[in-house]
UniProtKB/TrEMBL annotation:
Keywords: Carboxypeptidase, Hydrolase, Protease, Signal. Coiled coil: none annotated. This is Carboxypeptidase-like protein. Pfam families: CarbopepD_reg_2. InterPro entries: CarboxyPept-like_regulatory. GO terms for molecular function: carboxypeptidase activity. Residues 1-27 form the signal peptide.
């Protein structure tokens, strides 16, 4: 009689244990691994998406990633300047995969502007018209006139012109970055304001080539990823303030 009662008590306990085990097994289903380039170097901030379930994660500084997935889920690995890799989750349980991405070969200068021009594109065209003479001027060749080439290299005006051309390219890049990486969007995604916002954007400037080729989703993920890194060691420089007494002393 006692044995029968013990068995009856064990049944609900075993049932609960079975539910817990099955739940933990479902939670443990994931794909993890490392993302590298074709030379085996780890890639940071690669977007790994589970298209079936709408989940996204990013690789860390060592290229490692971990994403929940079930058998036959559609997965995609995307990274700026590299060809994407798509695959299906091969099996249930934990799966390890090393993914290698191939770099694209392209030139940023080969950009075709469509009829729907943005404000930046219109302003860029006007700037190039304004400074056309200085931008189109090339260095004299040394094949037919070596003396002219030497004189041109040492000319003060020539040096200023070459410096202007170099700085103009930097200005153009920064103008474009500002259209995709501005204080308003960063503040909306991170909640940062004033000095903290300025400190974060100064600590994590967006590369121009990334701004030109990344999608809107990749831009947002880039901001959030770097924000999490910045929050581990946030640094906001103190602004020097001057009291009225200090002002009086200086006078």
């Amino acid at each position: 009689m006692t044995i029968h009662r013990n068995k009856s008590c064990l049944k609900p306990i075993l049932f609960c244990l079975l539910l817990l085990c099955s739940g933990s097994l479902l939670q443990a289903q994931s794909i993890q691994g490392v993302v590298t380039d074709m030379e085996g170097m780890p890639l940071v901030a690669v977007a790994i998406s589970n298209k079936t379930r709408g989940q996204v994660t990013m690789s860390d500084a060592d290229g490692r990633y971990n994403l929940a997935a079930h058998k036959d889920d559609n997965l995609e690995f995307t990274y700026l300047g590299y060809y994407s890799v798509s695959m299906k989750m091969p099996e249930e349980g934990n799966v390890f995969r090393r993914i290698s991405l191939k770099k694209k070969l392209f030139s940023l200068d080969e950009v075709v502007i469509g009829p729907g021009w943005t404000d930046y594109q219109k302003d860029s065209i006007e700037r190039r018209k304004t400074y056309k003479f200085a931008l189109d001027r090339k260095k004299e060749g040394s094949v037919f006139s070596p003396a002219t080439a030497i004189a041109d290299n040492f000319s003060q005006k020539a040096k200023q012109r070459w410096r202007f051309q170099k700085n103009f390219a930097k200005w153009e890049n920064q103008k474009f970055v500002d259209t995709r990486y501005g204080p308003e969007e960063v503040s909306e995604l991170t909640g940062l304001q004033s000095d903290s916002l300025a400190a974060f954007m100064s600590a994590y400037p967006m590369p121009a080539d990334y701004a030109r080729t990344a999608t809107d989703l990749e831009i947002k993920m880039w901001i959030k990823y770097n924000y999490r890194s910045w929050m581990k060691h946030p640094f906001v420089p103190k602004t020097d303030t001057m009291s009225p007494a200090d002002t009086t002393k200086k006078k």
